[in-house]
Design brief:
Blueprint: H1 2-14, H2 21-24, H3 32-73, H4 75-78, E1 86-88, H5 98-104, E2 116-122, H6 126-136, E3 142-148, H7 160-164, E4 175-180, H8 190-208, E5 215-218, E6 223-225, H9 227-235, E7 242-245, E8 247-251, E9 257-262, E10 266-269, E11 285-287, E12 291-295, H10 301-310, H11 325-334, H12 348-353, H13 369-373
Parallel strand pairs: 1-11, 2-3, 2-5, 3-4, 7-11, 8-12
Antiparallel strand pairs: 5-10, 6-12, 7-10, 8-9
Helix pairs in contact: 1-3
The structure holds 2-acetamido-2-deoxy-beta-D-glucopyranose (2 copies).
InterPro entries: Glyco_trans_17
GO molecular function: beta-1,4-mannosylglycoprotein 4-beta-N-acetylglucosaminyltransferase activity
Pfam family, one: Glyco_transf_17
Length: 393
């Protein structure tokens, strides 16, 4: 209120000429009180009313709707970026021998390759799981998959892998599959259920027969290391004991390349009693250009909606209309954000650089080979095919 009053006075005295000049300037006694009032109404009170009845509610409404955006935008003020990774240059070309590739990285070559275990917690992403396993198949000793009948947010879910297991006959001889019952604690932080499932995955890995110095890939299903990356790491000696993989970050399909900053996936040289399955930062070393992270890369609209609800960040679904299928379809085609959020970055430069929808990409070069060989079946993942099927198949 203090602000308003002083601003009003200021207005009247400074802009004397144009708006209430004829009134404020006059010292004539006759119409003094009337014109004063009119002046106040016109100059001060009109502004005040506009302020009170339009701007203030708009502000409150804006904060209500965009509060999360405002706090994300101001994030660089209250949070400093994490320590940068130590990026390891990644060398690869089909025709270069493994010996030379290892040497380029400063590593030696082994006489025989390490065994490789790929372990994932599965929710419902069947298409991406197929691409992942087909990509990695030539170099994986054992695929380990754990699924729960609970989402991380504590919603019951069917055992989707169990009922589709016949579609994965190609891995059957190398598959260790496990299930775990959800704890269904209401209102609990989703990260607790997630941690609980990861501990169970450690047990399943032991059952699968993992031993010291075997390679273990720790990543979500949709974080797919490229085949040649895993081949390099299994053949080269002296690779770091833990190595993060820098993956190209895609959203909805390979049409929307966000950046190349996905870093959560990691490869470990297994150490009994020490290695624990984790999905957070575990070391500074990261290998460049090591694969793809395709988030929300689903065939059906219903899967998007399921994931939005099952996601560890369910608090992001602030309004129920976010889950409206028509809205979801529009957002996908635009390359916009499903949760209507700002980019999660640590500097204003990066936030501003990423505002607005993700630009369309017209490149389908260096994608998982199974995708291109079955382009018709996985059309929805390729550029130019944003329309999704409505009901779940
Ligand atoms: C790569 O190797 C293949 C066979 O090993 C050979 O036929 C081909 O010419 C090579 N390509 C290049 C570009 O060197
Ligand atoms: C989840 O699985 C556990 C263990 O198999 C079972 O006891 C429980 O009834 C299941 N719950 C639901 C909701 O399916």
């Amino acid at each position: 209120m203090f602000m308003l009053g002083s601003e009003g006075d200021h207005y009247c005295s400074k802009k004397t000429d144009d708006i209430c000049g004829d009134v404020c300037g006059q010292e004539s006694s006759r119409a003094l009180s009337m014109s004063r009032l009119r002046c106040i109404l016109r100059g001060l009170d009109l502004k005040t009313y506009i302020f009170l009845f339009v701007l203030v509610p708009t502000c409150f409404f804006g904060i209500y709707v965009h509060g999360q955006k405002i706090s994300y935008f101001l994030r660089p003020l209250w949070e400093s970026p994490p320590k940068p990774f130590h990026d390891i240059t990644h060398y690869y070309q089909e025709n270069v021998t493994m010996e030379n590739l290892c040497k380029l990285h400063g590593w030696g070559i082994r006489e025989y390759p390490r065994r490789v275990f790929d372990a994932v917690l599965f929710s419902n992403e069947l298409d991406i799981l197929t691409l992942r396993w087909k990509e990695l198949y030539p170099y994986i000793t054992e695929f380990v998959l754990l699924e729960s009948n609970s989402t991380f947010t504590g919603l019951p879910k069917p055992l989707v892998f169990a009922s589709n297991r016949d579609k994965f006959k190609f891995v059957e001889p190398r598959l260790t599959y496990g299930t775990i019952g959800g704890r269904f604690r209401r209102g609990e932080n989703p990260f607790v259920e997630e941690a609980y499932q990861r501990v169970a995955l450690d047990q399943l890995l032991k059952i699968a027969g993992i031993t010291d110095d075997d390679l273990l890939i720790m990543s979500d299903v949709d974080e797919i290391p490229s085949r040649h990356t895993i081949n390099l790491l299994r053949w080269c000696d002296d690779i770091p004991p833990i190595l993060h993989l820098r993956l190209k970050n895609y959203l909805y399909s390979f049409e929307f390349l966000v950046d190349s900053n996905s870093w959560r996936a990691s490869v470990h040289r297994y150490q009994t009693g020490k290695t624990r399955y984790a999905h957070y930062r575990q070391t500074d070393d990261i290998l460049a250009d090591a694969g793809w992270h395709c988030s929300f890369c689903f065939r059906h609209i219903s899967e998007f909606i399921f994931k939005m609800k099952a996601y560890s960040h369910f608090d992001r679904v602030r309004f129920s209309h976010y889950l409206n299928p028509e809205r979801v379809q529009k957002v996908i085609c635009k390359g916009a954000d499903l949760f209507d959020m700002l980019p999660e970055e640590y500097t204003f430069k990066e936030i501003i650089g990423k505002l607005g929808p993700i630009p369309h990409s017209y490149s389908a070069v260096h994608l998982p080979s199974y995708l291109l060989e079955n382009a018709k079946k996985y059309k929805f993942l390729l550029p130019g095919n944003c329309f999704r099927e409505r009901e779940s198949g």
